[in-house]
């Protein structure tokens, strides 16, 4: 009788214990696991963000699993499935392809995993939240920077009889940010198109935001247009630098205004050298901690405050069902005039990188 009770008591303890372990999500370390899924590490920013988010999550006591998909859409989905199988309770995903990633993310969400779409939208209502920068504003600032460099509005050079010839260089067609960025660019330039003072002579999107690909595209555009390009509205820094290579080959670097985004070290250096015209500063030192804070809130079963509801239709321009909760951080335009203040003094990029190859006597003081 007594031993029967003992057996029942021990058995109950074992059941409760295993339930507790399951609730913690990780039988091994006892820590809750969070997965990070990156599209690639070819783009400068992602590795930095991985390091930062891993550190912050670990400080909060999470175990971090991180995977990088090398631009491979199927691999990214397999990696997400795999992290779910390993028992992650939360996933922060930088999607290579916002539509394709939805397949793996839907499965993860169905398994109870909280998914945060980081920087790039994943096209499903099953994400817990979407955190990014104001991508439409990025596009506006890119186009504004280029228009200002062309002397618009109010130019006497660019008229109906002599419109400025613009090459529109979109980002990766599978990244919804590229679509939002284009929306902002068009908002700014449409009035000039309507007025007839600028004209789009070519429009192409760059797969994977790939620099070498962008260079090739620009070379072909220059050939087709017999070098008659007056400005390039490029969508990020990597593609802008590829395009500047092509422009440089024709003696046009520094003569043709060109935009970008991310305020990478290389592009800030190009800006101080007078080649790239404008970039857009998105402070990832704010984005990554915000993502970690949001994930922590979700995993504690609490509600994230300060989010706004958007329909997938509005965010994508596609016929998609459902709404999601999102937060967009502000962005700032960077040119030669404010790169020191915004990027160097704030410590976003190192002084030595931004002023690389600039003679000592032409550099501002070290901050
Ligand atoms: C976009 C992102 C940009 C840039 C780009 C790749 O999704 O918004 O900041 O990183 O990917 O260069």
- What percent strand? 15-25%
CA radius of gyration: 24 Å
CATH fold-level topology of the largest domain: Rossmann fold
Mean pLDDT: 94
Descriptive notes:
This protein has helices at 2-24, 44-59, 73-85, 101-110, 135-149, 176-195, 211-224, 237-249, 265-272, 284-299, 312-316, 339-344, 351-354; strands at 33-38, 63-68, 90-93, 114-118, 129-133, 164-170, 198-205, 231-234, 279-281, 308-311, 323-329, 332-334. It has a 7-stranded mixed sheet with strand order 2-1-3-4-5-11-10, sandwiched between helices. Strands 7-6-8 form a 3-stranded parallel sheet, with helices on both faces. It has 2 domains: 31-127 and 284-328, 3-Layer(aba) Sandwich (Rossmann fold); 135-282 and 337-362, Rossmann fold. It is an alpha/beta fold. The radius of gyration is 24 Å and the shape is globular. Residues 17-27 have low confidence and may be disordered. 44% of the residues lie in helices and 17% in strands. The structure holds beta-D-galactopyranose (GAL). Beta-D-galactopyranose (GAL) binds next to loops.
Short description:
The protein is an alpha/beta fold.
Topology (elements, then pairings):
Layout: H1 2-24, E1 33-38, H2 44-59, E2 63-68, H3 73-85, E3 90-93, H4 101-110, E4 114-118, E5 129-133, H5 135-149, E6 164-170, H6 176-195, E7 198-205, H7 211-224, E8 231-234, H8 237-249, H9 265-272, E9 279-281, H10 284-299, E10 308-311, H11 312-316, E11 323-329, E12 332-334, H12 339-344, H13 351-354
Parallel strand pairs: 1-2, 1-3, 3-4, 4-5, 5-11, 6-7, 6-8
Antiparallel strand pairs: 9-12, 10-11
Helix pairs in contact: 2-10, 3-4, 5-6, 7-8
The structure holds beta-D-galactopyranose.
